[in-house]
Amino acid sequence: MSVVSREAPARRVQLVEVLVFLLILLPSMVLPALGMRPDELRFALVAAAVIAHNVALVSLIAYFVWRSGEGLRSVGWAAARPVREALVGVALFVPFFLAVGMLERLLRQAGFTAPSAPPDYLLPQTAPEQLLALALITAVAVGEETIFRGYLIRRFDAVTGSRATAVVLSTVIFALGHGYQGSLGIVAVGFIGVGFALIYFWRGSLIAPMVMHFLQDVMGLLVAPRFIGG
């Protein structure tokens, strides 16, 4: 009996580790396994892979903070008044969105390279794809804020002993991860990352940054392409 009681928790921990590992590993293997070329990709497949990737990374973070005894509150998943925090995010989004737009215009004038428009087959076209896009945007907003603001800033702060350095390191990684958006996109995303970090410090919760991130991506993925496409 004692042997079972000692082994059961270890097995559960190992199961969690394996499941999270597979969630991270498998999306990167799907496309090569199917023998698909970039021009054969479809929005649904790409969206599913990105959602799985974000779920996997957040699961891994949840596992880390559980094992360390820190809990999800330590990475920003906390708010005494979540509805109020969400409304703060909505209220801050408009001026923040306008500021990002102004920065992008200045960067274009300065000669920074802008990202090319994504091909139509990587944009949601049908009603089911648009619903999937909302799920994708939600997963990315929650995932990236948890990863880059909640977790990495906390860990870099502990390692370097400097919150400012932690913000810089996390933001650089966040921005470089958007390198496909060109030099303009990298700088703009860096600006967004610093802004979200400051709001996180101010509010003590990731809810407002998550809401702002969600709205930013809604504009980029669902709203802007309709206007650009005429």
UniProtKB/TrEMBL annotation:
Keyword Transmembrane helix: yes
Domain of life: Bacteria
UniProt name for this protein: Abortive infection protein
Domain CAAX prenyl protease 2/Lysostaphin resistance protein A-like: 131-219
One Pfam family, short name: Rce1-like
Organism annotation: Sulfurifustis variabilis
Keywords, ordered alphabetically: Membrane, Transmembrane, Transmembrane helix
Stretch forming the signal peptide: none
Biological process per Gene Ontology, one example term: CAAX-box protein maturation
Transmembrane stretches, start-end: 12-31, 43-66, 86-103, 158-177, 183-202
Record InterPro entries: Rce1/LyrA-like_dom
PANTHER family the record matches: CAAX AMINO TERMINAL PROTEASE, CAAX AMINO TERMINAL PROTEASE FAMILY PROTEIN
Gene Ontology molecular function terms on file: endopeptidase activity
